[in-house]
Amino acid sequence: MSGFDDSLLNEADETVRIRMVVNGRKVAWEVAPRETLVDCLRDRLELTGTHAGCEMGACGACLVQLDGRAVHSCLIFAVQADGATIDTIEGLSERGAIADLQAEFHRRNALQCGFCTPGMLVNAHELLSQVAQPSREEIRDALSGNYCRCTGYEAIVDAIDAVAKARGTSGGVT
Amino acid sequence: MTAPLTSLDRPNSYIGRSVPRPNAKRLLAGRGRYVSDLRLPRMLYAAFLRSPHAHAKIVSINTEPARAIEGVHLVATGVDLAEICTPWTGTLDHFKGMTSAPQWPLPVDRVVWAGQAVVAVVAESRAIAEDALELIEVDYDDLPVVVDLDVAREAGGPLVNPGSVNNICFRSQLDNGTVDDAFAHAAHVVEEEFTFGRHTAVTLEPRAIVADYDPAAGMLTVHHGTQTPYQFQDLYSRHYDIPESRVRVIASDIGGSFGMKLHVYHEDMAVVGLSILLGRPVKYVADRMESFVSDIHARDHRVRARMALDAKGGILAMDVEDLTAIGAFSTYPRTSVVEGNQVIRLMGAPYRFENYRATLEVIFQNKVQTSQYRAVGHPIACAVTERLVDMAAAKLGLDPFAIRAQNVIPDDAYPQTSPTGYRFEALSHQACLKRLHQMMDYDGLRAEQADLRKRGIHRGIGIAAFVEITNPSPAFYGVGGARISSQDGAILSLTPSGEVRCLISVTEQGQGTEAIISQIVADQLGLAQEHVKVITGDTEVTPHGGATWACRGAGIGGETALQATRALKRNILEIAALILQEQPSALDIIDGQVVDAATRNQRMPISEIARIAYFRSDTLPPGTQAQLTVSHHFAPQGYPFAFTNGIQGCLLEVDVETGLIKLLKHFIVEDCGRVINPMLVDEQLRGGVVQGLGAALFEECRYSDTGQLVNGSLADYLVPMPMEMPDIVIAHVETPTADTELGAKGVGEAGTAAASACVLNAVNDALAPFGATINSIPITPMKVLTALKRF
Ligand code: FES
Ligand code: FES
Which of A69, B161, B192, B381 has its CA 20 to 30 A from that of A107? Predict the structure, then answer.
């Protein structure tokens, strides 16, 4: 005899078809309503650069760009992202959008285990697209949704600061 | 004008150079290969039902409805796993009289903390496994819960382990000298009781494991997010009775560890068993809530301590009692008493005094286990010692720098044995003190503080000297019967194209092991660093060794690499000498070229030697066997530990209206011996300091009266964020250890060791005008306001 509750399975079985453009490529798949965007990106597309550190919007490891703005992919159900354009760390890296940030992080060792790093980079990218020359205080403030347990944050702040200055003098992004 | 040439101006001189980490580029591109990312063919997912009770008897478990769910492959209880896994006990022989109850992957009859895993479900997805968990019914009978330290110690009170006589895990005493006499004759005595909350590591990547048992091959492969793969190879082999050579543990990229990921966790052992039962790969990744209730916690001490001083402020004696609460079990295989043991042995470590007495009592309670976490025992010993020193200074009207300068062991007085029995080879407290004083602009800060006080702004300046234990010898675990290696091994090969591949037993968790090992190899061989490939973290490939813990990566792993490289270089030069008709001693290698040692004239590339040796050995003299792969092991000898030292300083501001504390700046002067990569050392220090600052001000695992963890999420447990953290200024003094050629000691724990002590002293300094004191960590706004009698 099984005391199995059928409604549970039905609910879990139900799927919705969604489409999005991920890293420049159109994808379509069936998702369960309860699936989060971070799980879909990691499990279905094997874009494991986006990490889950808390699954409650606190740590920032899961940041991706949705229609050009940084969002927590752990707080968004995949169905909510239907029709959206998503850029993950892999896409941003491949098209060179954050190459200067990555180079500066590397030069200054602004990462240790690297688990927080994709989220940090997405956030830094967002910050510099909003504020061209943030002060160190503003950088620290902007990063306050990104936990890093390994570094002392200082090298990360230094790296972003250096990139902001370099972009400013090279007449790049304003 | 050209600066004089230094050793760093030689070609291929990488030791002492700030070069970036080669492997970091991968991580920056989102191409890390963390265990949580791994997916294997036919892989299943495990989830665990956890106990809602802190202490209860398991009366019955009904797993039938869960088993019936489509997609569920296995539901296993403690009894199921106990049939294939032998239990473990977290004791070490050299801790005489130590006790702890046997542990199984899942409990067989009793739960001992809220959050303990009770039943495992393996299913086609984690979501299905979690659905199934909801259908499992466990019938519990509540047992009395032991939460409070004093309740745990009460005679006749409730017991964590009903079979035992009391809740004591371990007791120890040190008595060196005539302590009572020293106190009786002291001009001054300072005394305080301190409490230190429970913290936890909060690695950003939670614990992750994929166990893959192949019944056809009789082979267990475990992808494990751990810093100690060899230790787990041994444990999986012994507890599941699989020959060691058929157990492979792979630790690829690890998303932070800090000591937390080197203990045996019940779920991890269970996942291995589940894979054995199913003959399929099984994955388990703790979610954040699970991490809070099942990762080891750390600290949790109550310390009573007093210090006796002579009329001039010379330290005469210390008398210490440390009570530490460790949860329901002692962890395995390192035990939960190492922390307390180090607390009582590191007390007073920077200072010259003779009379010391300490009692340690390690106590069970119904909470998750505490165990080794970054800077084991150091922050407690340091905070207690340094606070007492500051209290003494205040009593005697001495400046904090002055009393320390008067009491530290002089830099020219080594070797020295501490009153607690540690042997120090060479430390540099005087040099560090001097350097910190300058670096902080101490006099300037004091003047500014006085000025600001007049305007109602309350700044505090705190300093704290520390001694750190690194490069542990077998005296650490081996003597206690634990199969934890103090030696490391390296296998070094010259490849046919003239590059070098280094397989080494020390592991990488982001601190830069791979980078420093490649620096050492490139430096010693005379090769560009990019031609050295370092491979770590796979027991099937790399030789056995202790791996990375207790700050042994550079000091022991680095020395292993250095000695191995010198052996390979000798072999290369021997073959080169045969080919070139020279004496090996007349040759050297620079930039991958064999050169005349005297003239540095190029003779031939080492790639040519490799080519001849591998493909045209017929052209070498008869009898030549080219040994272009060397394997080498190194175990520390000489001093049982390579102690390092340093001093930290902290500037902060206390808002006496709100109790909020703003960290303004942090300073650290550190002596880790030979520095291999200054940038990596500095970043290790900064990361360590921030973990210490978190402990000082924010972090605490708080429990309810019934033993429930009440702040087990990242929204409730406060981890330091960028906004709250100060810039950290760093300087170095270098006193290499003479026990190794390399001279390096560890540095990973130095930052954490003294950061909270510094903050404690700085907050008390800020509150001094109010006559208020604080003796408890974390220093929350509420504690500040209570001390100020404003709450
Ligand atoms: S995983 Fe999304 S914020 Fe932590
Ligand atoms: S580098 Fe490890 S969490 Fe940031």
Answer: A69
Q: Tell me how far apart the alpha carbons of residues A56 and B762 are, in angstroms, rounded to a whole number.
A: 35
Residues 6+ apart with CB under 8 A from B620: B575, B578, B579, B612, B613, B626
How far A63 CA sits from the closest chain B CA (Å)? 12
Structure token digits, residue A136: 């160190």
Query: What are the CA-CA distances from residue B655 to residues A141, B442, B456, B460, B661 (Å)?
Result: 20, 22, 9, 11, 6
Whether A58 and B713 lie within 8 Å, measured CB to CB: yes
Chain B residues 500-559 with CB within 8 Å of chain A: 509-512
pLDDT in tens, B214-239: 999 999 999 999 999 999 999 999 99
B574 in the Ramachandran plot: left (φ > 0), alpha (ψ -120 to 50) or beta?
alpha
- Minimal-distance CA residue of chain B relative to A4: B65
* β-strand pairing of B297-309 with B315-325: antiparallel
Nearest to B612 by CA among B663, B586, B578, B588: B578
Atom of ligand 1 nearest to the CA of A73: 2
Identify the pLDDT of residue A1: 45
- ipTM entry: 0.95
Q: How far apart are CA B120 and CA B105, in angstroms?
A: 10
The answer to whether the CB atoms of B204 and A151 lie below 8 A apart is no
Best residue for ligand 1 mutational test, from A72, A120, A123 (most atoms within 8 Å of Cβ): A72
Residues in chain B closer than 8 A to A148 (CB atoms): 204, 722
Residue whose Cα lies nearest atom 3 of ligand 1: it is A57
- Other beta carbons within 10 angstroms of residue B249's beta carbon come to 26
Q: What is the mean pLDDT of each run of 10 residues along chain B (791 residues)?
A: 64 91 95 97 98 98 96 98 97 93 97 98 97 97 96 94 93 94 97 97 97 98 96 97 98 95 97 98 98 97 98 97 97 95 96 97 98 96 98 98 98 94 95 98 98 97 96 80 88 97 94 95 96 96 89 90 97 96 96 95 96 94 92 91 96 97 98 95 96 97 97 95 95 94 92 97 98 97 96 78
Amino acid (one-letter) located at B729: V
- Please tell me the predicted confidence (pLDDT) of residue B20: 94
Ligand 1 near A68 CB (within 6 A): no
Chain A residues with CB inside 8 Å of B714's CB?
53-54, 56, 58-59, 147
